[in-house]
Amino acid sequence: MKPSPLYKNIETGIVLDSTEAATYKGIAIKTLIFLAFNLVGALGMYFVLPQLIGSGDSASSRWLVGALVAVSIASILAVIFGLLGRFIPRLAKVFGSIYSFCIGLVIGTLTTIVDHYLIRFAGLICITGTLIIFGVMLLLFATGVVKPSAKLKAIVLGILIAGLLLTIATLIFGIVLNVRNITGSINGWSISAYLGLCIGVEVFFLLYGVITLTFNFCEAQAVVTSGASKDAEWTVALGMEISLVYIYVELLRILVLIASLVDRR
């Protein structure tokens, strides 16, 4: 069997020195590098998009449509390069950087729209929430309170299935509301109940992302303790960033739904 370049210590017997082996510091630095690419894309959209939204003339409308189309393409590219970066470790550095920038454009667009039309400082709120969740989960993992296990995997699977079932229920509820809206029999309580159900769905998916962080920490621990090469740091860092981005987006969605529910009341 051809040795894996990421686990030379285990499969070849070659002992890597401290400058070649993966470290927690290296993983942290590479995660910050990916987040920096993410921030560049997000801030770019955050400062450019309001200019397109604000003027309101026909030329600006065309620019706005073009920006939204570009962001849609960026979201597709982010999914593709994110998966490639995770499944092709030797190219995780390149693919992860492309993913980070593309997903940054998407996040910047979503945050700008929410901040402009619904909730001021929505981005700051979600960033703070993401950092708090990361810190709490890291503390729980470091103290051994939460560790990856067959039981935890079953819990994650259960949360995911529950979220998917609630999503189906939400779709059915939405169709019913749409029909009632057409017939003129819709009422405020129905819409509030629908928004409440949507919040429940997003909470389940947020829990899924939060617990996924535990598996990211476990992956980082395995890479360092097994003597993997520094190339593995990029793969782990990419996985970490994907989880953080996922949590941020879920927090943003929950924030929007809560604001909509409160506004209706």
Mean pLDDT: 83
Largest sheet: none
Span of the ends, CA to CA: 64 Å
The number of distinct helices, counting runs of at least 4 residues, comes to 8
Based on DSSP secondary structure assignment, what is the total number of beta strands? 0
Radius of gyration: 21 Å
* Shape assignment: globular
Low-confidence stretches: 1-17
Keywords:
265 residues, mainly alpha, 8 helices, disordered N terminus
Structural account:
The chain contains 8 helices and no strands. With 265 residues, it is mainly alpha-helical. The model is unreliable at 1-17 (pLDDT under 50). Helix 3 packs antiparallel against helix 4 and helix 6 (150-183) runs antiparallel to helix 7 (188-225). The radius of gyration is 21 Å and the shape is globular.
Q: Concise description?
A:
83% of the residues lie in helices and 0% in strands.
